Amino acid sequence: MSNSVLIGLDAGTSVIKAVAFDGDGNQIGVASRRNTYTSLPDGGAEQDMARTFEDAAAVLRALADEVPGLARRAVGLGITGQGDGTWLIDEDGAPVHDGWLWLDARAAEDARAIATGPGHRLIYETTAAGVNISQMRCQLRHMIRHMPDLVDRATTAFHCKDWIYFRLTGIRATDPTEGVFTFGDYRTRAYSDAVIEALGLADYRHLMPPIVDGAVTAHGLTRQAADATGLPEGLPVSLGYVDIMCSALGAGLHDRAANPGLTVLGSTGMHMRFVPDAGAVVLNDDASGYTMAFPDAAYAQMQTSMAATINIDWVLGIACEILASQGVARTPADLLDGLDDRVLDARPGAALYHPYILQAGERGPFAEPAARASFSGLDQTAGWFDLVRAVFDGLVLAGRDCYRAMGAIPDEIRITGGAARSAALKRLLAAALNRPVRGVAREEAGAAGAAMITAIQLGHFADTNAASAAWVTPLLRDAVLPDTGLVATYDRLFEGYLATRQAMRPAWQAQAVMREALS
Length: 519
Fold this sequence. Notes:
Blueprint: E1 5-11, E2 15-21, E3 27-34, E4 38-39, E5 45-47, H1 49-66, H2 70-73, E6 74-81, E7 87-89, E8 99-100, H3 108-116, H4 120-127, H5 136-146, H6 148-153, E9 156-158, H7 160-169, H8 178-183, E10 184-185, E11 190-191, H9 193-198, E12 219-220, H10 223-229, E13 236-239, H11 243-251, E14 260-265, E15 269-275, E16 290-293, E17 299-305, H12 309-325, H13 332-336, H14 339-345, E18 352-354, E19 374-376, H15 384-404, E20 412-416, H16 423-433, E21 437-440, H17 445-458, H18 464-471, E22 476-480, H19 484-503, H20 505-518
Parallel strand pairs: 1-6, 6-13, 14-20, 20-21
Antiparallel strand pairs: 1-2, 2-3, 4-5, 5-8, 7-9, 10-11, 12-13, 14-15, 15-17, 16-17, 18-19, 21-22
């Protein structure tokens, strides 16, 4: 593989990226394009399917400008992308409608009906995945009730990456993560008729494409797709796992010796623990979280905070609005300069902040579409940077809340995502979890994970362990150790955080009724 190139395509919510790697896992080129979606007044979030593929093809063409001889050197292409959502196509392979995203809030009633229905425990114990409004199983039920013409015209229900894979290869498929956590049995990694029946979707079983493991099977790039991307016809294309699992693989969660956890602090917050086999999966009374397969016997258990850095963006955006009202122009990026030191100097506990800032509510470690962010415990001594500190604390305490739902906190936490660049957040997370926190020198973990799956399929690595040892272990950074003085502080903060969160559900429900009346 000395001159070979592996390509990972990561179709995220905000950016589509194509990344080239050499055989040793070194990133040698990247091309990207901003992504856009439409927010609708009824809570919908939709993305143009045709444009999404055009953008994917464009970044693959642009990658050739970064990597000399890319078309000649490329040996495989792995595809990953944003999770959840529903992207419907018809018999001819044309989009039935714009794709529904994970940000879409329209299926709240359907999610609640599933979560309170008689089949809920069977669904959770079979899929090992909690119910939330962004999942295809909820969105399909909403479409069937309110937009039946969309479902009637559809022949296949995809997720984002599945749609791109179809356009590249002509194959209708989904992968062992998204197909299983929505409709399957995590032990068998196949669809479950019992789950599909319990969801009330037995009559729509035909919409669910075959499950294809990209670490085992690849399909060739079609002539039409070759013309669109500039890559050679027949190039092996692997359908990677959902973006969070590819990120987990590329950022070092798969490590049998270290027993790690992985925290991803991007727009969304993900908190994951490595599970060696299906028998070690821990289910919880709240029926929350996800369990997804690696390309071997191992799994990742995860809890998702719907919003992570979005909370920081929001609080800094408010500051920018206030400054603008006084004729001072600043951006949130401007305010990030020097913020770590000011946060660490501020008072922990001057306020508590629960970071449920998105309209879609929260899904980890509990599912509640009505959940909303709030400050509590304020008094007149709280200053601006105390409030910003509370937001940072809210993110790491939410992480502890999530790990708590999955059993014991892992021995070491690895961290990635945009907020991993914050020294303050790493220090606070180490204290909140009382565990070492270690970064990984990998900017594009999702694309790397997709490329690693492709490399396994091509036989360049014997298995997932070998791929991780070669591509990830050399990139692990020195650990940030817990500050013993702060550990006790965060134990106290978490007691208050958890008690407040558990007391808030009736208030969230009342506020939801209030918002409906005012809308």
